[in-house]
Amino acid sequence: MSESPQLLQQRLFYQGRVFQFEVSKLRLPNGVEGEWECVRHPGGALAVPITKEGQLVLVRQYRFSLQARILEFPAGTIDEGEDPATTVKRELEEEAGYRAHNWQSLGKFALAPGYSDEYIYAFLAQDLEKLSLPPAQDADEDIEVVFMSFEEMESAIARGESIDAKTITSFYLARLALN
């Protein structure tokens, strides 16, 4: 196994409500020194909800950073000290208005390791119960619930619709788990 880089200096540039941005000066094992930026994030949890009719439950959500609405599975940031399974159950209820009675872990994956330490924990959510109250979205969310078949979702991905990477990855993890 190769040697790890040596941390020479670390500076916090920004502390936000969800993440922080830091710059680290490192000396690589080959002697080269440089600075690397990193977004430190607590991680997220995502549900791939499937109705008894085989429909995927997604949300179309406005994302300020892209200035567009994108198609996503219900997901959210893991609160401090919270288990990803607790996060995903809350987010499914809040964003889509469903409760799942059957959960299966699909694993975790790094979202953007080139600049962030965020991991997404993906779960398959089945045996869904529609809640009687409308979804309790956060004040800063603008969400529309969308239903798609697996074939419609695959076609949307192939057409290049605005779908985020965590949703595409989790869709294929769910397909593998179901086959």
UniProtKB/TrEMBL annotation:
Residues 39-170 form the Nudix hydrolase domain. CDD domains: NUDIX_ADPRase_Nudt5_UGPPase_Nudt14 (cd03424). PROSITE patterns: NUDIX, NUDIX_BOX. Its cofactor is Mg(2+). One of its GO terms (molecular function) is hydrolase activity. Keywords: Hydrolase. This is Nudix hydrolase domain-containing protein. It comes from Microcystis aeruginosa PCC 7806SL.
